[in-house]
């Protein structure tokens, strides 16, 4: 039997989605994509669920795509990872402990709010591997961060601490290590104390305005991905990653 990729629990109208692949730092493979898609379909389809939290557990959030296995095909309702291309009507909170790198950071950015422990670290290391962020960061990073900070994170590949994320308005709540889920549940309780109809209509209206240029964002992402996939740098960056050596860039 294949390893379970997520664990689901329900608490007071809140669906808690826990990624359960710690040996791979919760890297997303095709099975994880399907598991996340199934969980978020359940959130949308069950009327008694009013909000959800996605977490990677007490040690880490997610290291992004499993570069050896790949993340599988985008899902019909959720897109890449079953998450980042999804149109939702119910709030989704990311509870981040430890690393949220690459696609893991993009999953967090696709959520409505981010709760992060003080030991959380966010990053888009794709440029260090000759790649580009292809799961929404190209257009979402500058929504959750000031434009110049978003560019710095994307173009240098350096990490952003949770304290920096909070200072820039990306992180809603900071908490002690090990308390991200508890803090996210408290935030979710404030949401679910309100009318679910009011919450859902408000969220959909705000998201519709915020995402008005998303189609163009995905087109530009696909264009960048095509150029990168045909480049020598992408092949070199991935090879260097697996061979655990510094890359030697060609510039083409």
Which percent band covers the strand fraction? 15-25%
The rough form would be described as globular
What is the domain total for the residues?
A: 2
Number of strands: 9
Distance between the termini: 43 Å
Helix and strand pattern: EEHEEEHEEHHEHEHHHH
How many strands, which pairing sense, and closed or not: the largest β-sheet?
6 strands, mixed
The assigned structural class equals alpha/beta
* Spatial order of the strands forming the largest sheet: 1-2-3-4-6-9
**CATH H level of the largest domain: which superfamily?**
2-enoyl-CoA Hydratase, Chain A, domain 1
Mean pLDDT across all amino acids:
96
CATH class of the largest domain: Alpha Beta
Describe this entry's structure for a reader.
The protein is an alpha/beta fold and 252 residues long. It has two domains: 171 residues, 2-enoyl-CoA Hydratase, Chain A, domain 1, CATH 3.90.226; 31 residues. Helices cover 41% and strands 15% of the residues. It is built from nine helices and nine strands. β2, α1 and β3 form a beta-alpha-beta unit. α2 packs across α3.
């Amino acid at each position: 039997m294949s390893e379970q990729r997520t664990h689901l629990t329900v608490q007071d109208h809140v669906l808690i989605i826990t990624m359960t692949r710690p040996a791979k730092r919760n890297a997303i493979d095709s099975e994880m994509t399907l598991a996340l898609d199934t969980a978020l379909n359940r959130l949308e389809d069950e009327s008694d669920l009013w909000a959800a939290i996605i977490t990677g557990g007490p040690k880490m959030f997610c290291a992004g795509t499993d570069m050896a296995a790949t993340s599988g095909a985008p899902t019909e309702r959720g897109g890449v990872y079953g998450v980042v291309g999804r149109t939702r009507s119910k709030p989704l909170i990311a509870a981040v402990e430890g690393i949220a790198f690459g696609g893991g950071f993009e999953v967090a950015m696709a959520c409505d709010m981010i709760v992060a422990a003080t030991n959380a670290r966010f990053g888009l290391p794709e440029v260090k591997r000759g790649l580009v962020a292809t799961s929404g960061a190209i257009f979402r990073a500058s929504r959750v961060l000031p434009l110049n900070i978003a560019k710095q994170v994307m173009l240098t590949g350096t990490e952003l601490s949770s304290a920096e994320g909070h200072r820039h308005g990306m992180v809603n709540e900071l908490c002690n290590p090990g308390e991200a889920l508890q803090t996210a549940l408290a935030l979710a309780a404030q949401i679910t104390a309100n009318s679910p109809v009011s919450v859902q209509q408000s969220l959909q209206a705000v998201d519709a305005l915020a995402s008005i240029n998303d189609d163009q964002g995905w087109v530009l992402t696909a264009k960048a991905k095509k150029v990168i996939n045909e480049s020598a740098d992408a092949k070199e960056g991935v090879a260097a990653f697996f061979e655990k050596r510094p890359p030697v860039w060609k510039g083409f």
